[in-house]
Amino acid sequence: MHIAGALNRVNLTSIPAVPERKPPQAETPVGRRRWLICGLLFFATTVNYMDRQVIALLKPTLQVQFGWTENDYGTIIFAFTCAYAVGILFIGKLIDRLGTRKGFSAAVFAWSAAAMAHAAAGSMIQFAVARVGLGLGEAGSFPAAVKAVAEWFPKRERALATGLFNSGSNIGALVTPLVVPWITYRFGWRMAFIAAGALGFVWILCWLLVYHRPEEDKKVSAAELAYIQSDPPDQRAIGETTVPLLTLLTLRQAWAIALGKFFTDPIWWVYLFWMPDFLSRLGLSLTGMALPLFVIYSGACVGSIGGGWLSSSLLKRGWTLNASRKSAMLVCAFAVTPIMMAAHTTNAWLAVCLVAIAAGAHQGWSANIYTLASDMFPRRAVGSVVGFGTMAGAIGGMCIAKAVGYILQHTGSYVPVFVMAGLAYLVAFGFVQLLAPRLKPAQV
Q1: Are 286 and 224 within one domain?
Q2: Alpha-carbon span 139 to 105, nearest angstrom
Q3: Confidence class of residue 234 from pLDDT cuts 50, 70 and 90?
Q4: DSSP for residue 264
Q5: Residue 237 domain flag
Q6: Where does 99-188 have alpha helices with state H?
Q7: Residue 253 is part of which domain span?
Q8: 0.70 exceeded by the pTM?
Q9: 326 in the same domain as 280
Q10: Which comes out higher in pLDDT, residue 12 or 129?
Q11: Range 18-23 contact pairs with CB under 8 angstroms and sequence separation of 24 or more
């Protein structure tokens, strides 16, 4: 019914005629070109996380070869997160200026070249420089993908399309532990960086061959183009308007989301960049940790879906928006706390299960904290609020990179790291409740 109503507002002469006796059917497919675009976005996100994670899997190997301290590795990760945070400040405007086709290509080219440059590094400083290039390039991935979704999907499908392409982050984290050990043992660690980076150039070729704006794509049917453009013009314009950062700084609701991500996003960085090292300390080899890491990131996939399902389910049962969102977030926050026991056990699989539960809870938390932006802000401000929150999370990632390196260097133990992880979500929930106790809409 929504689709039929939307089609009434566009030029019906551009849509193939149907017999008058057949009523419009909302379920009738209008074309699948836009889902091919979504598939390319999924591919890009998968490659993004593969390039990001290779160094974590190779940390034990590189530490032996180059004599890195834990602080040295923390500095390398700090360089990436710092560049990522800086890139978020300007990369969106650059992509807007270049356009989605050229802008996304430039971002993937930058991070793929940087990923391959790791293979030529021979010192901690050179690895840090390569990570800076990787961080700056990867900062463009999510803004460009969201912009592509906005160009190719009507509002009613954008959440689904975004969820589908963003699931590539979990798939990338799942695939990398299965592929990198094999490449490393067969061809050496340098080839692992080269192979992962080369995937980006394959993606660029596919992207340039396929991607155009819908109205410029010759393979889009008239019916699908009308469907893509079926949102009312005023809503489409409003959705593409940004809100200045200085305005967001004055809003309690924006700070609720920013602080919610500042304390929790860094924990995901810990799972991504330090889990292989943690597993190696439990006695697992590079090939032996493939299955445990698969289990951990499978847990993240389940949590990503489960966190959103719980919130939506409570809403359907008649709970208020505030109670539904906060209850789901609180459940996720408490589900993380058992990770504090992970460093106390010598049983590798018990530790893996505790981390998998925590990783799933993080993704459930993340799904709901992003949703708070659309709950409290008008459409025109959601992108700006999410960008503000993402930047805050990246700044938190910079802090955790140095903190974990310092802790491991001076204690040799993950106990303090996992205690921080177990408490971070409860602290973040406290700030969200303090700053947005009723999820009152922000006056932008």
Answers
A1: no
A2: 13
A3: very low
A4: H
A5: no
A6: 100-117, 124-138, 141-152, 155-166, 168-187
A7: 243-444
A8: yes
A9: yes
A10: 129
A11: none
